[in-house]
Amino acid sequence: MIENSLNLEEIASTIIGCAIKVHRALGPGLLESAYKECLYYELLKAGLFVEKEKPMPLVYEEVKLDIGYRIDLLVEKKLVIEIKSKDALNDIDLAQTLTYLKIGDFRLGLLINFNVTLLKNGLKRVANKIEN
Questions:
Q1: What is the pTM of this model?
Q2: In terms of CATH architecture, what is 8-127?
Q3: Which of 11, 39, 73, 93 is most enclosed, with most CB atoms within 10 A?
């Protein structure tokens, strides 16, 4: 069981290892939901606290808007995982992940596209520079 005191880099490393395991077992070409469920299972097995389809309200001034934003997976309450299964990642995918980081005040996200031959080609780290 992994301790909850892991830093972001240790958590990211564990997630990437689990994602590689899922990708090796399933390969490309499945729906995002299949990869999400399998990665969720692997992360739980690794001892991480994982929330699936985590609702993310948007706060505008003093108004909290529950408008349907959901993070695919939130790990240890601090690292966002956005899962894709498409020909290529694009700027909108990156913007979506960055938006989740900003509205949730998270520092790091992983954008993972499983529809690639080699998973490292579908993996993108997204960092949020939080102002103090």
A1: 0.90
A2: 3-Layer(aba) Sandwich (3.40)
A3: 39
